[in-house]
């Protein structure tokens, strides 16, 4: 029980706030778990889509090479639909489920569809620019570029 003097000087609020910040930091997923989930999703979701687009839609690798921009737009738009569906409905992709990760907003609630779309676009942008991939190694709380842009975070269940 806090003394009246501590309550009046807002010392109690600061202590409870720091406990919430520690809880928030401890529940964030590690970068290695995120990487393992990304690799798993690449093999489970992206690789079959790439093969389907190359060989069923275009017919061959040569045909895909001639229409590379159109082919990659098909691949990325299909991945956009599938991954944002998983993030919005299930709060995790199959790779995230394999490593007990879940995507939530900063209040640890379900994300909305806009946050899922922003996160996907920010992920593509961070992969295209190598510098943005280094952000989690520079800052203290290990948040990625897509975490900052979409105001979401990956947590361990």
How far apart are the termini? 32 Å
What percentage of amino acids are in beta strands?
Answer: 5-15%
Specify the biggest β-sheet.
Answer: 2 strands, antiparallel
Count structural domains.
1
Average pLDDT, to the nearest integer? 86
Number of helices: 9
Q: How much helix, percentage-wise, in residues?
A: 55-70%
Beta-strand segment tally: 2
Q: Can you tell me the residue ranges where pLDDT is under 50 for at least 5 consecutive residues?
A: 14-25
Shape estimate? elongated
Structural class: mainly alpha
Q: Could you explain how this protein is built, in words?
A:
The chain is mostly helical. The protein has one domain. The chain is 69% helix and 6% strand. It has helices at residues 4-8, 11-27, 31-57, 61-66, 68-90, 94-98, 113-128, 135-138, 145-150; strands at residues 101-105, 152-156. A two-stranded antiparallel sheet has the order 1-2. The relative contact order is 0.13. Mean pLDDT is 86; it is low at 14-25.
Features:
elongated; 157 residues; mainly alpha; single chain; 2 strands; two-stranded antiparallel ribbon
């Amino acid at each position: 029980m806090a003394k009246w003097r501590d309550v009046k000087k807002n010392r109690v609020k600061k202590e409870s706030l720091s406990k919430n910040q520690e809880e928030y930091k401890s529940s964030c997923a590690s970068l290695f778990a995120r990487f393992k989930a990304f690799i798993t999703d690449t093999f489970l979701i992206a690789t079959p889509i790439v093969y389907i687009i190359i060989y069923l839609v275009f017919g061959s690798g040569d045909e895909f090479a001639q229409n590379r921009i159109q082919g990659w737009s098909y691949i990325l738009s299909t991945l956009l639909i599938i991954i944002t569906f998983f993030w919005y409905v299930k709060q995790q992709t199959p790779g995230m489920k394999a490593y007990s990760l879940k995507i939530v907003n900063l209040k640890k609630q379900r994300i909305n569809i806009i946050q899922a779309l922003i996160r996907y676009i920010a992920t593509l942008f961070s992969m295209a620019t190598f510098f943005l991939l280094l952000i989690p190694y520079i800052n203290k709380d290990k948040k990625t570029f897509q975490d900052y842009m979409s105001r979401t975070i990956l947590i361990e269940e």
